[in-house]
Amino acid sequence: MLFRRRKPLTLKEKLRDHLWPRKGFIRSFQYFGKRLVRLAASPHSVAAGFAAGIVVSWTPFIGVHFVMAIIIAYLVGGNVVAAALGCLAAGNPITYPFIWGLTWEIGHLILARDGGGQSGGIDLPALWHRGDLLQIWDPVLKPMLIGGIPPAIVTGVIVYGLTYYGVKSFKSRRKARLMERARERLALADNASSV
Questions:
Q1: Residue 101: in which H helix or E strand, if any?
Q2: How many helices (H) and strands (E) does the chain have?
Q3: DSSP type of residue 145
Q4: Distances 147 to 96, 107, 118, 171 between C-alpha atoms, Å
Q5: Domain DUF2062, which positions (predicted)?
Q6: How many angstroms separate the CA atoms of 107 and 138, rounded?
Q7: Are the C-beta atoms of 42 and 76 separated by less than 8 Å?
Q8: Are 59 and 145 spatial neighbours (Cβ–Cβ below 8 Å)?
């Protein structure tokens, strides 16, 4: 192979690279941002898709986030790839504990419940193992789902606005650069033909 490593990475090195990239997280975020603004779609489409992915990440239904984001993106005229990128940006193993804790607390505040007393009486691993989702709904999923609504709305609006204006300014700068290059090429072609 042309680009194969001479010495393959060990399992320990691969795990380290996944948890902490060699070039750091800033470079990963920069690549992620460039990937988002370079999507071949309108600024509204990219922003709506990305916001849909962010909004869906506030729900407690992890296994279906991508499907939900794609459906919401389709309904609001968003880009499906941007929706998937939004899911990856907001919903990952690093952010899920914070999202779950925040939605749990907000849900209990909205439902006017005492958070400590409700969760002490259930055996959550046993309920998950049996697949008894009806018993998990009221003490766990309902507060998390209701508690996810306010932060989802706030982050969705903020992310939509930032993404929309970011993509719009990127595309307008890119268009101006391309027009300038085209003018320079025309000027060179005119000068060459006049000689």
A1: helix 96-110
A2: 10, 0
A3: H
A4: 14, 4, 15, 36
A5: 27-174
A6: 11
A7: no
A8: yes
The secondary structure of 52-113 as a DSSP string is HHHHHTTSS-GGGHHHHHHHHHHHHT--HHHHHHHHHHHSSTTTHHHHHHHHHHHHHHHTT-
Phi then psi dihedrals of residue 30, to 5 deg: -65, -45
Ranges under pLDDT 70 in the chain: 1-2, 114-125, 127-128, 131-133, 135, 138, 195
Angle ∠(75,134,102) on CA atoms, nearest 5: 65
Q: What is the pLDDT of residues 129-169, one digit of tens each?
A: 776 667 677 677 788 888 889 999 999 999 999 999 988 99
Residue 87: alpha-carbon gap to chain centroid: 4
Token digits of residue 159: 């992310």
In the block, residue with structure tokens 């902490």: 20
Quote the tokens at residue 92.
């990952």
Q: Are 36 and 167 in contact (CB under 8 A)?
A: yes
Q: Which helix (H) or strand (E) holds 195?
A: none
